[in-house]
User: Fold these one by one.
Assistant:
Number 1:
Amino acid sequence: MRDWTGSVAFITGGAQGIGLGIARALAKRGVTLVLADVDEAALARSAEELAREVVVRTYGLDVRDRDAFAKAAEEVESELGPVDLLFNNAGIVPYAAARELSYDKWDLALGVNLNGVINGVQTFLPRMLERRAGYIVNTASGAGLVPDAGVLYVTTKFAVVGLSESLRQAVAGHGVDVSVLCPGPVDTGIVGNTRSWGEDVAVPAGLVPAVEAFLRGGPGIDDVGEVVLAGMRARRPWIFTGDEIRPLLEERMAALLAAL
């Protein structure tokens, strides 16, 4: 088991939700934290909380912005040292019925949920490979393994799972580990946060109570943070927060095998 005390972690979506849960778990272990988020107010609150335990830096970062990613990486590694732990966690839960899909909605969903992960990987992976050290955790979803009708969200999360599984193979033997986090329901506030990106990609108001009740039925963000670190210690390819998708996953695997 690796001791990460003194390491530097870069967490996108780090000011709230699962990102904050991961940050809190890392803070307990003496990890220097870099929190990146689009929500400046949440960044300020989380930095004030976590700075009581460890060194914290914050960046107002839209993960679609490659130049901003590069600038943050340069500043962080110059001031704090190499980023050892990368958590590509920022994401939204965009929704559109089939008849309401548009290029703009696809661009937003892919830009944040997929390109945001790619940008994080491409910014920090070359540095990790050069040092032959690092750990990348990409946040996908249980919906990245078993689909539902939320085509925008599901498409991005399937892509993140595939990216992570392939990247894990590509960097094997180069000192870099990769895991993909596939959470089930977690009470993160993601439904409300997505609405701030535009009403036209938000979960319809009539469905919000049921969706939020479902999310509240899962573990809290602090429990998820501990689950993530346990998965990293075990170097698991996939990290789950529960087994809610088991029957759906079994059904999907059986159908795939039957189709061969």
Number 2:
Amino acid sequence: MKIASLRRYPVKSMLGEELTSLTLDGHGVVGDRALALVDAEHGRVATAKQPRYWRALLRCRSAGSGPAVRVTLPDGRSLPAAAAAAALSDLLGRPVRMSARRADGAVVERPDPEQLLDDLDADVEAPLLEIGQGTPGGRFVDHSPVHLLTTATLDALGVEALRYRPNVVVATPEGTPPFMENDWLGRELTLGGVRLVGTLPTPRCSVPTLEHGDLPRSKEALRGPAERNRVDVPGFGVLPCAGLYARVEAPGTLRCGDPVSVG
């Protein structure tokens, strides 16, 4: 196995950037989910998991790191992330502010994605989910600091990788069964000189089904995992899953083409 591609998403729930290398520290991918929009009214982190309010974020793109992060709006305007809140408030129809650090106990709304397949604006219960429970520091990751996905799983589902928003896509040999990531829970993964440990199967929400830039909606991006890979996720219940969350054991730099092994 080897690293097929690497991705970073500087602003939570926006499109990100594909890179040839990623630097990992003890808190995960440097520059990944470093920023997020926060609802000025309720103080909740904006995420397209609640498509009723936030799906337009996936029409925006973020790139860069630190103070150089820029946001490209659907109309083509490029703004420094630090100065983009007003324009994004107009786009979303809700007042938001840009935050550079996850507050303790930060939450998002996460309605059951299967209840939204036919109507993204359906008025369904939206439980609050605390993010970053498996990640130290202040980044706006959903749970653990690194998200991996194999080409075996992607090929079986017939879904574009960017819909699932992984940091690392692992190329697997021909004939590898899909959803092998389930078997990596608790095991050590070595990617080049970086070591990770699998922490949770990755539950799938509404995000993969939404429009991503020019990509249209794809209900199959949720239906596939729902039909083929429902997993008992510790602490969260039995959920449709595709991919693996992991924590960092030994930081370093990941590069496309680096070998991948599982201990």
